């Protein structure tokens, strides 16, 4: 039996009144990406589906090496999938060329984890923010327009006009990340991929930067893919969450559903390790200890790839690929499904094999 992927799509693409829903801003379906050859070949993404609606934030979580950055690179058009499709506003960006490709590249931008590493110390804030305009010259054709736009962008991220001519070493970590955000906004994108955008910052500064991101969403309608190891941050910023394990999506759904009623034991374990969170239905207040280490990506376990660390694992988990289930063990008919891949989902008895 081949493994069934979680198809992260609104049911049949229909609204409640039966009319066709507009395509999501981003729709990744069945994307597989491998690296290397022969015995040194590993599958970093295995039939991955994700969806980002306009003006929404998708949280992407999972341990190191599960494929989050590879997925981000695919979304940014930097890595071509081996199979599967990427649709941005209904168009496959990998089919674009020339001017169309350049126009699309504006629409998806990135905010990096470490503002210290990602900013060139010898460039002023103005130069850093305006660097993307070197490639996209038509956006601010004159020096005057450029100066005006830099001031607007500084103001949008909560910095002052006088900051325009300062250098990275004159800014705090939080201010540098604000410059990183202003730079991502310079091309007026529809989607920003944020890869651990606050994990290098002090706790008190993290909240300020997260507020900047959420204000920008309100004001500009920008969408985010938000990658983070910090589940309390993901819960705070995300409308929907996708959980990955060893290159596969093992659970996805609306944030509150996934956090309050995880389907997959792996999701529950991740959440139980996050100090402020309560996993209802699980050992309250106790961290779920997973057995062993993450398996090698060169040697993915048969059946359910999480089984070697799962406390619910039985013989079936090694023999058969896990089915798609919801918290209640039934197919979800709602518009925004909350699903997981598991033989023994939480909150339900064993599913039919
Ligand atoms: N260019 C590459 N060549 C070979 N292997 C790669 C390459 N890029 C990623 N990988 C492998 O693919 C798997 C997924 O990596 P990826 O960086 O996407 O994970 P991640 O979830 O982003 O991890 P982290 O949280 O540590 O950044 C890992 O096993 C990694 O070693």
TrEMBL record:
InterPro entries, A to Z: AAA+_ATPase, ABC_transp_ATP-bind, ABC_transporter-like_ATP-bd, ABC_transporter-like_CS, Oligopep_ABC_C, P-loop_NTPase
Pfam family, one: oligo_HPY
Segment forming the signal sequence: none
Residue segments, region Disordered: 1-25
Entry keywords, A to Z: ATP-binding, Nucleotide-binding, Transport
Record keyword NADP present: no
CDD domains for the chain: ABC_NikE_OppD_transporters (cd03257)
GO biological process: peptide transport; transmembrane transport
The keyword Chaperone appears for this protein: no
All copies of domain ABC transporter, residue ranges: 26-271
GO terms, molecular function: ATP binding; ATP hydrolysis activity
NCBIfam families according to UniProt: oligo_HPY
Protein family according to the UniProt entry: Belongs to the ABC transporter superfamily.
Protein's name according to its UniProt entry: Oligopeptide transport system ATP-binding protein
